[in-house]
Design brief:
With 608 residues, the protein is of the alpha/beta class. It has helices at 2-19, 22-27, 37-42, 56-69, 78-100, 107-159, 166-173, 178-181, 218-235, 256-259, 262-268, 299-313, 332-345, 350-364, 378-384, 392-404, 415-420, 428-438, 458-463, 472-475, 478-481, 488-500, 512-523, 534-545, 551-561, 597-607; strands at residues 189-191, 208-214, 237-240, 243-244, 275-276, 289-291, 315-318, 369-373, 445-448, 469-470, 504-507, 529-530, 593-595. Strands 2, 3, 4, 5, 6 and 7 form a six-stranded parallel β-sheet that branches. A five-stranded parallel β-sheet has the order 10-9-8-11-12. A two-stranded antiparallel sheet has the order 1-13. The two termini are 24 Å apart.
């Protein structure tokens, strides 16, 4: 390669010298001995061959050596273009030098001077344009390399929790089809939640303080807290560490610091919002204004209606945090901030993280597992009115519970009608048939990420199809669970990690955990997530169990219907109303996930 480069340099040097044009003709003395334009401009009388005059061969040699030492493709020859452009610029300068010898009062001199200036400016604009195009192309290539590196790093990071070869061993030993465990194709997608280049840090003088009470279960509180971070940014407010709901069904006294790493939360978001543990002493006796923000509000609501109240009262207290920010039509910087809060800042405490790693190592044991969000707890069944597969006594108990809970508006519900409409959680028995029809063998390990199943024999109806069913209660020892056992939200955090890190995640109802986990799995590289089409599935199950169709037909139809319900990349679906839209935290694309296909096409087009 070095010989080839030397040959190229010699070839170009000879070409320049032989044609007596370009750089050497303009910037060195002529053969006749006349002073070159450059020398005339500087008043020099040096002749050809003088060491101080511009020697194109020396310049080409220095530039060319640098190019050969680097990785530039010799087919592009950017150094030739550099010489030509340099020669043009110097030619204009030289001409201006000649004009400069004219009398100042000559009108022709003025015109020629202006012409020279315009020509030089035009040339500089062309140089800037060419340089910027080359720079953009280079940056695009670098961006692609960075994205690929990040994707590889993410893959390696997620693999740290697994044994390297357990997939191949499982496939060989248990004749498991790779299609059952492989994730959807997502090679053209990557995280894009970094702060923009000109992103401004939070102002030193905020407009006030935002105190919030996160309501609901763990995952409802989690997404609500992320929205409050974004709202604090919108209003330039200082966010006080949120308090958690202690009056919900779970009756958990845990505080934020018991579930999430406070220091990590504050430090990760310090360039976005100011976050403090509690109100300053000077404001603790100030009466805050209590408000419940309108659900699914856009940024304009907080700027136009809440911000004036914040400035007036200095402290705003939001009594609810769930779904208080719109899914769509928000600034890109706010959408990215919501994801930074959710996927980077909200990290579970060390006791929860440590126990999750222990359980992961135990359940994998050289083979993959399914995390099953089986929403068949007592409160969910009472709320939805779904009693299929339960005894009449159990149905009556659920009905009474629904009546006793005042804030549940629906009291009289036709459970069977809801089931036919696909509005009921799948029963454990239906879930077992579903997974079996998809092709998962009976040896498949299943970890249930949910509360205690309701109904006599519910768990056994699933174990009839899949005996290897686990929960955090069966996989951990009593000693290991002791710090968490009386705190439902901390245990929910443990289940969240087990669901996030699973090889396949299956949810039987669209609850808050299902939405939060599937969105997080999409963000982490579109890990396989199966969402049953409940309306079609229960119809097929009824037909199979009544003998109307055979197992083969049942299995074929179930497989075909769910072939594309595996969490593959797809844009978040809009809706006429916020409740009919796809939830932002269930699918953060677009907003926090970007597609690099178009960028790749632009780079290829530029190179061609």
């Amino acid at each position: 390669m070095g010989n080839q480069c030397a040959s190229d340099h010699a070839e170009l040097s000879a070409h320049v010298a032989g044609n007596r044009n370009i750089a050497q003709v303009l910037l060195s003395p002529r053969v006749t001995g006349s002073v070159s334009p450059r020398n005339r401009f500087f008043g020099s009388s040096k002749r050809a061959g003088d060491g101080d005059s511009f020697a194109s061969s020396d310049y080409l040699g220095s530039v060319g050596d640098g190019m050969c030492a680097g990785s530039v493709d010799r087919g592009k020859r950017p150094w030739i273009l550099e010489v030509l452009l340099y020669s043009v610029v110097m030619n204009f300068v030289a001409r201006c030098g000649v004009v400069g010898m004219k009398k100042i009062g000559d009108r022709k001199f003025v015109r020629q001077s202006l012409l020279c200036v315009l020509l030089v400016l035009a040339t500089l604009l062309v140089l800037v344009k060419i340089t910027s195009v080359a720079w953009i192309s280079f940056q695009s290539e670098q961006l692609l390399l960075t994205e690929n590196s990040q994707l590889l790093a993410t893959t390696v990071k997620s693999s740290n929790l697994r044994e390297v070869d357990y997939f191949s061993k499982a496939l060989n030993d248990n004749h498991l089809s790779n299609d059952l465990w492989s994730k959807p194709d997502s090679k053209h997608f990557f995280h894009c939640i970094d702060r923009p280049r000109h992103y401004k840090p939070p102002r030193e003088r905020p407009n006030g303080y935002l105190v919030v009470n996160a309501n609901g279960g763990l995952n409802q509180m989690r997404t609500g807290i992320c929205d409050m971070v974004a709202i604090a940014r919108i209003m330039n407010a200082v966010l006080v560490i949120p308090t958690l709901d202690h009056s919900s069904f779970w009756d958990d006294p845990s505080e934020f610091k018991d579930i999430f790493d406070v220091h990590h939360f504050v430090d990760t978001l310090k360039k976005d919002v100011h976050i403090i543990d509690s109100l300053p002493a000077s404001l603790k006796n100030v009466e805050s204004l209590k408000k419940a923000p309108v659900s699914w509000s856009k940024a304009s609501f907080y700027k136009d209606e809440m911000l004036p109240l914040l400035k007036q009262h200095k402290v705003l207290y939001f009594t609810h945090t769930d779904a208080r920010l719109a899914n769509n039509d928000l600034p890109d910087s706010i959408q990215k901030l919501r994801c930074r809060a959710n996927y980077q800042a909200l990290k579970f405490t060390k006791p929860i993280e440590r126990l999750s790693q222990t359980l992961l190592s135990r359940i994998r044991d050289k083979s993959p597992y399914i995390a099953l969000h089986l929403r068949y707890e007592k409160d969910m069944l009472a709320f939805t009115g779904c009693t299929h597969g339960l005894s009449s006594e159990e149905g009556d108990e659920l009905r009474q519970m629904r009546i006793n809970v005042e804030h549940w508006k629906e009291k009289d519900i036709d459970g069977e009608e809801r089931r036919i409409q696909g509005s009921c959680p799948l029963t454990p028995h239906e879930t077992g048939l579903f997974l079996k029809a998809l092709g998962y063998p009976s040896s498949t390990k299943i970890f249930i990420v949910a509360g205690k199943l309701y109904g006599n024999g519910s768990l056994e109806s699933l174990q009839k199809h899949f005996p290897n069913v686990y929960t955090h209660l069966s996989l951990a020892t009593e000693e290991e669970l002791e710090p968490l056992k009386d705190y439902q939200n901390r245990l929910a955090g443990l289940d969240y990690i087990m669901a996030l890190e699973s090889d396949v995640f299956v949810y039987t109802y669209d609850g808050n955990m299902a939405k939060a986990v599937q969105g997080h799995r999409r963000f982490e590289g579109f890990r396989k997530t199966i969402s049953p089409d409940r309306q079609i599935l229960v119809r097929l199950i009824d037909e199979y169990e009544s003998g109307s169709i055979s197992w083969e037909i049942f299995q074929q139809q179930v497989t075909e219907i769910h072939a594309h319900r595996t969490g593959a990349p797809a844009s978040r679906q809009p809706g006429e109303f916020p409740k009919t839209e796809e939830y932002f935290y269930a699918n953060p694309f677009p907003g926090c996930i970007c597609e690099k296909k178009q960028l790749s096409r632009r780079v290829l087009k530029g190179n061609s």
